[in-house]
Hints:
By secondary structure, the protein is an alpha/beta fold.
Amino acid sequence: MRRIILIGYMGAGKTTVGHALSRITGMPFYDLDWYIETRMRKKVSQLFAERGEEGFRRFEQTMLHEVAEFDEVILSCGGGTPCFFDNMDYLNRQGDTIYLKASAEVLYGHLRVARVERPLLKNMSPEEMQQHIRRQLQEREPFYSKAKYTVSVDQHTDFEHIKDTVAEIQRLLNLS
């Protein structure tokens, strides 16, 4: 029974790396946000608006406990998931946690392009967005750094670098 759990800030490439790992290992890939949306038939942003952050985070924790019990799975968590309740300790007990670590500058570059897909950032100016990313990254780093493994993704500029990241994860976890 193996579980590979990807954590990190939004825009770090958790979904992209998860899909690539899934193709190589044959293990199914689940994105926690997508899992929640499928089960609830609502967007995460809608659930967040309806329940508030506290209500959403409690529900997210319930869904996390459901999907993190699956065997032979690759799971990517929302950027905030490890930072609430005992989620990070729970994830470490469930499997191999990997922090996809990126600098605030790299994350800004990735998120600037995908801003419309990120409701939280949609109405921010570039300066506000950079400050927001820096502040949240600093707040979340103590949780992220509890992961069993850390892989730098600052070079995620093209598919070759993503392949390098996947190869590094394969080496770390002895996935041949």
